[in-house]
């Protein structure tokens, strides 16, 4: 578990490609000039035309277009005499033929600067050595996106001579690769950011350059999006101005010692790589930051020399970093989850019920303690982010709580969903308006008249609502009137299932008593061996005419209009007149009810109003007075049966 981070650095000096620039004198080939570039008089001498050939190295890997590393533009040609003073200067925006006037047989120093971005105005070599290119940003390494280049050479001028002059880039190329293949089993490192920091803000084209305090882009530049694949392939590329810091920490024997003491000003000038990633191992997870200074080697040298390619390979091995500090910042690492325990592990709940699951995370020092809850079958159970389970359908589902730290650890609970046990069965029916209705089991409004076409449709509702609504309902018709034939007076139109439809059998004059009685309609279900039932009372009457009796004698037979649907026993007392043409029932108060009879209309007034169709269920007994003919008064009871 040692040496999780290693670095291998290599430096490559580049090969070359050639650009030719032909330069001729600005004077006549045979003429002479009496003054140098600075206006100093000199002995007449012959000026000759020369040809200058410029070359730059061929880059191993390019950035942007194929020629960006070798492109040349805005070229300054500077010629110095033996005394170091400038004697000739030419500027060209592109590489084209230039005519110059250079003295023959003199040893001159010819310097060139490409991609500087402007005309260079200097008078001598001392000023040239102090010439500085200042970058506008950390990405700026020359004019118009091309690299700043410079070069110089001393040559004796002779007619027709060709002078080759090499141009060296003032920046270098950094190629960064990363290898995580040697990490321990179960370990991974997902890179999130790669930066090159402490970028020099300027460079001297003709002098060794090094970043100074206050002239550094400390945050540097970041690798472009998608750099992760490049790290594992050909590498991520950065360009940086020369930064020759030298041997700053002599005697270093191990790579991890290449770190400046806290507060050391040199740490702000030396360029370094910083890579941020999400590190995951069996025991640890979180953010880790790795930093490494660049240089000619991985120990005490910090030089970043121009015109070179630096290949840096970061090799990650082992399980956990051995060191912690500026170089390897593990402050973002925390213990990973090793196990998750969900309780209760097995539960049985009823349909539409809820249960709260709890999850314990181990170890307690685990840095990331968030859980992701999920259900194996959301049709049966759903679960929210807090472990609350809601039963949606019967069956089984596995509820999982998984650690979100990438450890892959999780706990599970098995949930079995069943129907709630049946508590009661309630019988309902439709009233005269067609509305589903329920009431007292002895409610007399549920009645049928034999021989009529009407029927009653019963519905059995199972409670509670989350019980099994698919249970088979079994119906029974039971006699409760003492009439052995009563159960036979109900005809079943739909004898199975739900709803249940019954009708009274047709009335028979020969067996009128058989068409009258009370039955109880019973509905039951079998829920896992437990029988739950309910019943409702039903009255059945024969269809008969109105037969009023007085003193036990039937007065007349009249057909009843059946306006009301109640079975009423009414007692009459004295005070009412009874005429031969019909029966007149008069009362001193109450509502007037019209009852149709065979040869006329009889009015009956009671002291109490009859119940309406709203479902009131009392047997009515009314006390009225009857007067028979000529003021004959009696106090006999007259019983009238009103049948629907």
Instruction: Provide a count of the helices.
Output: 2
Low-confidence parts, pLDDT < 50 over ≥5 residues? 10-39, 59-67, 440-445, 544-644
Strand residue content: over 45%
* Helical fraction: under 10%
Could you give the order of strands across the largest sheet?
Answer: 6-5-9-11-12-4-2-7
Describe it.
- Helix content is 2%, strand content 48%.
- The two termini are 99 Å apart.
- With 644 residues, the protein is an all-beta fold.
- Strand 48 (592-597) and strand 49 (600-605) form a beta hairpin.
- The radius of gyration is 56 Å and the shape is elongated.
- The strands form 15 sheets. Strands 6-5-9-11-12-4-2-7 form an 8-stranded mixed sheet, with no helix packed on it.
- The longest helix is centred in the middle third of the chain and has 6 residues, at 227-232.
Topology:
Blueprint (H helix, E strand, L loop, with lengths): L4 E9 L1 E11 L21 E2 L1 E9 L16 E6 L5 E7 L5 E3 L1 E2 L3 E8 L10 H5 L3 E2 L14 E8 L5 E8 L1 E13 L4 E10 L1 E2 L1 E2 L12 E2 L3 E2 L4 H6 L3 E6 L1 E5 L24 E9 L3 E10 L7 E4 L3 E11 L9 E8 L3 E5 L2 E5 L3 E3 L1 E5 L8 E5 L5 E3 L4 E4 L3 E9 L6 E9 L5 E7 L5 E2 L9 E3 L6 E8 L10 E6 L10 E5 L5 E5 L12 E11 L2 E12 L7 E2 L2 E2 L13 E12 L2 E2 L8 E6 L2 E6 L17 E6 L3 E2 L6 E3 L2
Parallel strand pairs: 2-7, 4-12, 13-24, 27-34, 37-43, 46-50
Antiparallel strand pairs: 1-24, 2-4, 3-8, 5-6, 5-9, 9-11, 10-16, 11-12, 13-19, 14-18, 14-21, 15-17, 20-23, 21-22, 22-25, 26-29, 28-32, 30-33, 31-32, 33-34, 35-36, 35-38, 38-41, 39-42, 40-41, 42-43, 44-45, 46-47, 46-52, 48-49, 50-51
């Amino acid at each position: 578990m040692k040496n999780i981070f290693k670095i291998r650095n290599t430096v490559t000096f580049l090969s070359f490609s050639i650009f030719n620039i032909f330069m001729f004198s600005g004077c006549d080939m045979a003429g002479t000039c009496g003054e140098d570039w600075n206006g100093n008089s000199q002995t007449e001498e012959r000026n000759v035309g020369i040809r200058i050939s410029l070359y730059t190295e061929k880059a191993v890997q390019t950035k942007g277009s194929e020629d960006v590393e070798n492109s040349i533009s805005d070229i300054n040609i500077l010629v110095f005499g033996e005394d170091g003073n400038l004697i000739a200067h030419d500027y060209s925006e592109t590489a084209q033929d230039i005519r110059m006037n250079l003295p023959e047989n003199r040893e001159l120093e010819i310097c060139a600067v490409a991609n500087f971005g402007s005309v260079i105005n200097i008078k001598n070599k001392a000023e040239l050595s102090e010439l500085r290119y200042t970058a506008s940003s950390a990405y700026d390494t020359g004019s118009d996106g091309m690299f700043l280049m410079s070069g110089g050479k001393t040559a004796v001028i002779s007619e027709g001579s060709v002078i080759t002059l090499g141009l060296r880039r003032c920046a270098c190329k950094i190629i960064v690769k990363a290898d995580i293949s040697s990490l321990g089993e179960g370990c991974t490192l997902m890179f999130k950011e790669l930066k090159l920091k402490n970028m020099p803000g300027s460079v001297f084209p003709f002098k060794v350059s090094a970043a100074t305090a206050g002239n550094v882009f400390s945050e540097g530049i970041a690798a472009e999006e998608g750099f992760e694949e490049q790290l594992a392939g050909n590498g991520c590329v950065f360009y940086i101005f020369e930064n020759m810091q030298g041997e700053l920490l002599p005697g270093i024997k191990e790579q991890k010692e290449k770190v400046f003491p806290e507060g050391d000003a040199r740490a702000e000038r030396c360029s370094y790589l910083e890579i941020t990633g999400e590190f995951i191992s069996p025991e640890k997870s979180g953010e880790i930051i790795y930093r490494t200074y660049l240089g000619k080697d991985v120990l005490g040298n910090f030089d970043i020399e121009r015109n070179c390619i630096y290949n840096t390979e970061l090799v990650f091995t082992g399980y956990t970093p051995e060191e912690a500090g500026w170089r390897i910042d593990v402050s973002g690492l925390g213990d990973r989850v090793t196990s998750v325990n969900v309780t209760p592990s097995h539960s049985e709940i009823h349909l539409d019920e809820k249960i709260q699951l709890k999850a314990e995370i181990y170890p307690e020092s685990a840095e990331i303690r968030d859980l992701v809850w999920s259900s194996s079958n959301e049709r049966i159970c759903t679960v929210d982010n807090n472990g609350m389970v809601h039963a949606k359908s019967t069956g089984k589902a596995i509820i999982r709580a998984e650690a979100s730290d990438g450890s892959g650890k999780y706990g599970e609970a098995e949930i079995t969903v069943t129907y709630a046990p049946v508590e009661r069965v309630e019988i309902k029916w439709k009233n005269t308006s067609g509305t589903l209705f329920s009431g007292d089991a002895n409610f007399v409004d549920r009645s049928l008249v034999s021989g009529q076409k009407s029927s009653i449709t019963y519905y059995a509702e199972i409670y509670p609502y989350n019980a099994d609504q698919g249970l088979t309902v079994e119906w029974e018709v039971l006699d409760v009137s003492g009439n052995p034939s009563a159960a036979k007076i109900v005809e079943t139109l739909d004898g199975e299932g739900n709803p249940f439809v019954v009708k009274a059998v047709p009335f028979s004059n020969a067996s009128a008593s058989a068409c009258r009685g009370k039955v109880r309609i019973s509905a039951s279900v079998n829920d896992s061996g437990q029988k739950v039932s309910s019943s409702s009372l039903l009255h059945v009457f024969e269809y008969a005419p109105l037969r009023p009796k007085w003193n036990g004698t039937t007065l007349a037979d009249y057909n009843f209009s059946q306006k009301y649907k109640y079975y009423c026993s009414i007692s009459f007392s004295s005070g009412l007149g009874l005429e031969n043409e019909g029966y007149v029932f008069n009362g001193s108060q109450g509502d007037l009810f019209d009852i149709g009879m065979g040869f006329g209309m009889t009015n009956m007034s009671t002291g109490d109003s009859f119940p309406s169709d709203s479902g009131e269920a009392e047997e009515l007994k009314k006390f009225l007075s009857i007067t028979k003919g000529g003021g004959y008064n009696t106090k006999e009871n007259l019983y009238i049966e009103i049948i629907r």
